[in-house]
Amino acid sequence: MPNWKKLITSGSAGSLASLSVDTSVEATSFTGSLLSTNGVISGSAQLDGFVSQSGNFVANETIIATSTNSVTSSNILALDTVNNYLGINQSNPEVTLHMTGEDAQTAQIRMEQYNDSSDAPDIRTRKARGTSALPAKNNAGDFIYRQNSERYNGSAYTTVGQFAVDSTGSADRFRLTLTVSEDGNTIDAADAQFMIDGNNGGAIKFNDSYYFPTSDGSANEVLTTDGSGTLTFSNPIPSGTISSSAQIASNISGSITSTSSSIASDIATLVSFSSSLETTIYDYTGSFTGDGSGLTNVQTEVTEQATITDSFTSVTSKSVTHNFGTKNVIVSVYNNSDEVIIPASIITTDINTVDVTFDLSTSGRVVVAKGGHLVSGSAVFTGTSVVSGSGQIDALTRYEESITGASSYAITHNLDEQYPIVQVYNSSNEQVIPASITANTVNQITVTFDTSFVGTVVVKR
Questions:
Q1: For position 408, what pLDDT does the model report?
Q2: 237 vs 14, 216, 234, 240, 242, CA distance in Å?
């Protein structure tokens, strides 16, 4: 240091190209750059020596103190001064605020507020056209808010969930939608699974298909769809339907029977109905269905629906579908002269089909009947001909007549059936085939034999 002392004296100015110091240099100020193998000078207030640098500094990262005289570069906060981006645990932020976590619960946002009032923390977003200095009103159809959930599908990130607020066809009406992807790759707020539609009075819409009402219905009403996406509250019982005992008394009083003027007296009559049924006649209108097995004391016209007729022309086989659900059926075949003929074969192919074959090409009709009698259709109650049991039902659908001393018989059955089932038994109770059976009218047939015949003819509807 002897030469240096000679060049610079107290109270004078001097300059050096470089200066090497073994221990320390004291001066009011220095001009130029200061280099040190131990670090950098942290400021004029640093009196304990130089501040050391720990590791290399990284662009955009902030400098933080790690000890009293040591600093380092950290990406806890990173500033991209070119794009005005801020990164948290992210050295190269890609958006205005970019947070990255590399472990569980390392990318969370927490806001805390402590106050003795109703106020609470809030997240608030704003959308306007124009600039921050001169904002302008949004247009119809503008996006107001988006919260997107993305996942990595193996090659790229795709949006699979979205919470959105958009303006509608009006700039002053808005929709809030909640949407999830149905294919893992695409999403559209217009097809949201859930929507609150401010353009429709705040109505809630599900699956872009149907709206719920915006107000409650009346007591006991239910939601009903019009099939076009609108649900409304309505009465589950159609107008005019009996809904209560009071309505029964009001609507049916004086009409349920020909002699009663109120439902109360009808009920009183029904108390003794079982004992007086056969002597008391009521007039009713309506309909009923069933197999007739439980019908007693009913005034009715019985409609028989247990036969199927199918015509054929110049064929050697005929398949008849009767849909009776059983192979236990009765099959009769008539030619075009209304005579019963015996085919080559009759096969009950399945429970709903009968197949008939002929030796020669034949024309006529096949009648298939089911055992028993199905009672259905309109029931007109006239106050006469009370059906008191299965015996009277059988009388309405079956006719039996004993014959003797002739070879031809005209049988009047009055069953109102053009093509009835006809069976003939001899005096030994054996079924026989007559020479011919002719359906003269809906109430009469003619049965002929090759010789004089004694036996019984049974006719069924």
A1: 94
A2: 110, 18, 9, 8, 8
Specify burial of residue 231 (Cβ count, 10 A radius: 0-12, 13-18, 19+).
middle
CA–CA distance, 263 with 54 (Å, rounded to integer)? 102
Torsion sign over Cα 199, 204, 209, 213: negative
Task: Provide mean pLDDT across the span 395-406.
Answer: 87
Average pLDDT over every residue of 399-416:
92
Closest alpha carbon to 306 in 291, 327, 286, 288 = 291
Answer yes or no: are the C-beta atoms of 350 and 327 closer than 8 Å: yes
Hey, what long-range contacts does 40-48 have (CB within 8 A, 24 or more apart)?
A: 42/69, 42/71
Is residue 381 predicted with pLDDT exceeding 60? no
Q: What is the DSSP track for 12-33?
A: -----S----SS----S---S-
Specify whether the CB–CB gap between 250 and 238 falls below 8 A: no
pLDDT of residue 307: 83
Amino acid letter, residue 277: L
Compute the average pLDDT of residues 181-197.
84
Q: Judging by DSSP bridges, how do beta strands 378-380 and 285-287 pair with one another? A: antiparallel
Kindly give, in sequence order, each residue whose CB lies less than 8 Å from that of residue 441, ignoring residues fewer than 6 positions away: 418
State which amino acid sits at residue 75: N
Q: Are 304 and 394 in contact (CB under 8 A)?
A: no
Each residue of 22-48: pLDDT tens digit? 666 666 655 555 554 444 444 444 444
Mean pLDDT of 285-289: 59
Distance CA(381)–CA(366), nearest Å, equals 34
Q: Among all chains, which residue has been given the structure tokens 């110049």?
A: 314
Residue 460 has pLDDT above 70, yes or no: yes
Sign of the CA dihedral 315, 316, 319, 322? positive
The amino acid at residue 357 is T
Q: 341 CB contacts (<8 Å, ≥6 apart)?
A: 333, 334, 335, 362, 364
DSSP 221-287: -EEEE-SSSBEEEE-SSPTTS--SHHHHHHHHTTTSSSS-SSHHHHHHHHHTHHHHTTT-----EEE
Q: Return the closest-CA partner of residue 333 out of 412, 419, 400, 399.
A: 419
Q: Which of 47-56, 67-76, 234-243 has the lowest mean pLDDT?
A: 47-56
**Which tokens sit at 398?**
């079956």
Q: What is the DSSP string of 347-376?
A: EEEETTEEEEEEEEEEEEEEEEEESS--B-
Q: Which of 446, 354, 460 is nearest to 403 (CA)?
A: 446
DSSP conformation class of 303: P
